[in-house]
Design a protein that fits this description.
Elements lengths: L4 H10 L6 E5 L5 H12 L2 E6 L4 H4 L8 H13 L8 E6 L5 H13 L4 E6 L2 H8 L9 E5 L4 H7 L3 H9 L8 H17 L3 H10 L2 H22 L2 H19 L16 H13 L3 E6 L12 E9 L2 H7 L4 H6 L5 H19 L4 E4 L5 E6 L6 E5 L8 H10 L3 E6 L4 E5 L2 E7 L6 H9 L2
Helix pairs in contact: 1-2, 7-8, 8-9, 9-14, 10-11, 11-12, 11-14, 12-13
Length: 445
């Protein structure tokens, strides 16, 4: 399965000023698979070390940080082969289980920069906080991975020709039914399957929704098991309370996250550490309110007012107990959650695109689902789950703040209009991967 991050791995490999690369991401999003595939394709040899439960290999890092000694022992004793700079890719996997490995990256950077080193892990922020380990600031590069994007899903499921076709069209041209019809079907399937690689692979192999459900159930159970493994018993209980409350929080008409709705009488100070655990683990995303959209948005966000979304839309569907037939056939009683579901989809795709996201709301309840300042360009994104694109809040935002470009994303086709000083685009949900292209065109880049 093709992953976009492969291109970033190639760039890292060729950089002269390269540092050890730290690949982060939620559990089971495909980090290990991608790194091994990269090593197999791009290097003469791969030296793979997994620290999950492997006490013997951990002791190699306990003595000191002499890189030559570490490589000699890893090579001769553990792997049975030499680790050669310029020829071998050294992969240090599941490093959250061995904090000393995290510290060693500083010495790989300083003493053997010619060796290609990739370290991978999940729950890393939690591990550093719990173990009190100092992070090698300035001595590593980071690459964050997410579940497979919709674009990656379509390609994996045999639809690369549709992606290429849409990419070849002028941005202002409507997408013909030749592309739109199959892409809408792919979008339905992505809502069901999501982007967790194991679930996607099962779908590709079987095209059986029930088989996918089983994989998703197991992933959700694995996540729940992590709560007890990586958190104190008291915190684990609170994490599970929040985890189980997320579908109902997302489904609310005003889906601001409210701690008292997680547990009656609970206050923010009682549960916020548990929510931050889930955010640090990459399992959920926080979307903060920005009432005054001035650059940079990060400095204007309200840390006390936010929404919460799940990292994978397929897991959200399964955790919310939405049957795949409901997605395929629609149901009048599904309308409200359908809108929240579309928002979660857009949030996950913005993460994959690495487009920063916030939301805007007035005291009078006008709201724009997402606003961003990607590359210093402020733009709003209004989300609709079907083809109804009436967006009074978007019009109000554009009138007040006059962004150069704005987006309405729904099932409606590509279209545009000029509203005052704002160029408004209709961008189909299934073509959201082209968002940056529209911004670049508007700015003349």
């Amino acid at each position: 399965m093709i992953r976009k991050e492969y291109e970033n791995l190639l760039k890292w490999k060729s950089r002269k000023s390269r540092k050890p690369l730290l690949v982060l991401g939620v559990r089971q999003c495909g980090k290990t698979y991608l790194i091994k595939e990269f090593g197999s394709n791009e290097f003469d040899d791969v030296a793979y070390c997994n620290f999950d439960g492997n006490e013997g290999i951990k002791t190699i890092f306990d003595y000191d940080f002499d890189i030559n000694r570490i490589l000699e022992e890893l090579g001769s004793i553990v792997l049975g082969k030499k680790i050669l700079p310029g020829k071998t890719l050294l992969i240090l996997d599941e490093i959250q289980d061995c904090p000393r490995v995290i510290q060693s990256l500083k010495y790989f950077c300083e003493n053997l920069p010619e060796l290609h080193v990739i370290a991978a892990g999940s729950l890393l922020g939690i591990t550093l906080k719990k173990e009190g380990v100092s992070f090698p600031v300035g001595k590593v590069e980071r690459l964050e991975m997410f579940p497979m994007s919709f674009e990656e899903f379509v390609i994996a499921d045999g639809g690369e020709k549709y992606i290429k076709g849409i990419n070849s069209l002028p941005l202002e041209r409507e997408i013909s039914e030749l592309y739109s019809a199959p892409m809408k079907k792919y979008l339905q399937n992505y809502y069901i399957v999501g982007g967790m690689p194991e679930a996607v692979q099962k779908w590709i192999d079987t095209h059986d929704y029930a088989e996918v459900d089983q994989i998703q159930n197991q992933i959700l159970q694995d996540y729940a098991d992590d709560f007890g493994k990586h958190a104190s018993p008291e915190t684990a209980i609170k994490i599970k309370l929040i985890w189980d409350a997320i579908p109902s929080q997302i489904a609310k008409e005003n889906n601001k996250f409210i701690f008292s709705h997680v547990k009656q009488g609970a206050r923010a100070k009682d549960l916020e550490d548990a929510l931050e655990w889930l955010v640090s683990a990459g399992i959920v995303y926080k979307l903060n309110l920005v009432q005054t959209p001035q650059l940079p948005l990060e400095s204007m966000k309200d840390n006390t007012y936010f929404k919460v979304y799940m990292a994978d839309v397929g897991l959200l569907r399964k955790k919310s107990n939405v049957n795949y037939r409901t997605i395929l056939n629609g149901d009048s009683s599904y309308i409200q959650f359908k809108g929240a579901f579309a928002e979660n989809y857009v949030m996950s795709q913005l993460k994959c695109l690495k487009v920063p996201a916030y939301f805007w709301r007035t005291q009078a309840d006008a709201e724009v689902d997402f606003i961003s300042d990607w590359e210093g360009i402020l733009f709003p994104i209004e989300v609709k789950s079907a083809d109804n694109t009436k967006a009074k809040s978007l019009q109000l935002f554009c009138k007040r703040f006059a962004p150069k470009i704005a987006f309405r994303t729904s099932l409606k086709n590509v279209g545009d209009k000029v509203n005052g000083s704002t160029h408004e685009w209709s961008l189909p949900l299934y073509a959201l991967f082209k968002l940056k292209d529209y911004v670049k065109k508007e700015m003349g880049w």
